Amino acid sequence: MQSRSQRRRRILKQCIQKKSKIEDNAHVTQEIDSEYEDVSDMEEDEHIQYEDEFDDEYESEEGEINIDSEDEEILQKEEQSQEQSQQNQLQQQPIQSKLKRKKKGMEQESQENQKRVWFYDEAENLDFDNRAYNMLHRVTTEWPCLSCDFVLTEEEQQQYKNKEYQKMNKYPYSVYLAAGTQAAQPTKNQIYLLKLSKMHKTKYDDDEASQSEEDSEDDNLSNDEEGQVHLSSVTGLKCGVNRIKTMNGQAIAAYWNENGDVNILDLNPLYKKLQSNQQSQFNLSQLHHKVFKNQHEGFALDWSRLKVGDLLSGSVDGKIYLYQLNNNDWIRENKAYEYHKGSVEDIQFSPIESFVFASCSTDGSLCIVDTREGKHKQAQILVKAHNCDVNVISWNQVSATLVATGADDGCFKIWDLKYPKNDAISEIQFHNKAITSIQFQPNSDSSIAVSSEDHKLSIWDFAVENENNNEEDVPDQLMFVHQGQKDLKELKYHPVYYEMIVSTSANGFNVFKPTLDEEEKKSEQSEEDQAQIPVIKEEDLNKYFQQMSIQ
């Protein structure tokens, strides 16, 4: 049995590079030691380029190849003599050359499905306006990660507990991230704990002179100062990490690995050193941790916000287990919940009831379970959410009757649990590949972020009313589209900092805050308008008054 999440992990492994770097523009060249004997056997992928045995790139219609003058005459003769035979060869037999997946930096249109897809090329960057982001920072680690989560400081934990959210107006910022790797060799895998500090506003990087006095006051240090990354790690893992979740922002993490183990790990020794920018490396055996064995691996994992220590896990064999903290030790219930007919892909506790949780599955369903009922074979609410795999869910933290689902066909929906038999209250088919992550903004009942295998992360606000606009196929509720990351896997809103998002992909992490505040936009527009008003000098004004005859 193979879930969609497993197939997505397999694709990520094909993208792995072993080169540690931290830079502003991250690129990944993905090599396939082809498991396909025939190019025609591969899944349809428009961004594959072919290379011959000398590693020279096949010339594409959009690209150009620089040719040395001494070789130009020889190449012209070869092209004339081989043109016809080459065309026949391409039509009659599969190409037995080395394949390299490249990021394409152009908008392509498939002849079969006529869907617009954006790709990212090593040779060119996606052009964007820095003003679209208040802040955008990129980090690349040695190995890519399927999953990540925030670790909060003590002050942030208290704010999170009290549901206090901060608007980001006091730069620079620092955050801690826990992540699990997908390395080329199983024994190379690690748990990362990263400290990203001195993250300044990047909005005015393209126009240094236009930064307002207000922004200068907010950003105490120059924007030219580079951000800093300090990384600590846990070694001794025997396989890759599928999903990682921190316990309400504390330095305690639960993670699924490929061997089917659910692990609970104390990261406090790493966190305490990172607070003073000390990087460290611990072996797993040196840290306090507990392992729960399972027959199959899984991806679904969630901590309860209401009852500290409660944990849920879901595996590809359809089993869901509840773990509870008892006398500083975790105990797993002996009996599993088994009501799904397929792999459990995602799971989440209710934001208002500690005994209720939601789950989704490859069987296309969204289920709500009340643990007080004691029925392990039946869900209390079952919604046939999609006609394909349901990959991810998100429970709204403000309006607790709203749950979002993201599916394999690129569609995501929002459901009102007050009316479980009704159709979804919203259904969006914007992405053209599988949804990989979805989350409501923590302090909003209408804003949601969605990532997809089409390399896009979109942000939506369903409080926006439909209006007549001139943009075709662009919904009014679409607020923002983030691009430039390859094979997006997971996104997370920061639990405290308003609108800050971290996203992980095959080419690293992005930490950003989009420019979405309408009041801020109006203020900037007003500043620009004022800048265009001519300045009248005092001496010119005095001359003008002298010319006026006032009797």
From TrEMBL:
WD repeats lie at residues 383-418, 428-470. SMART domains: WD40 (SM00320). Residues 82-97 have a biased composition (Low complexity). One of its GO terms (cellular component) is nucleolus. Residues 124-200 form the Histone-binding protein RBBP4-like N-terminal domain. Residues 15-113, 204-229, 517-536 are annotated as: Disordered. It comes from the Eukaryota. Transmembrane segments: none annotated. One of its GO terms (biological process) is ribosome biogenesis. Keywords: Repeat, WD repeat. This is Histone-binding protein RBBP4-like N-terminal domain-containing protein.
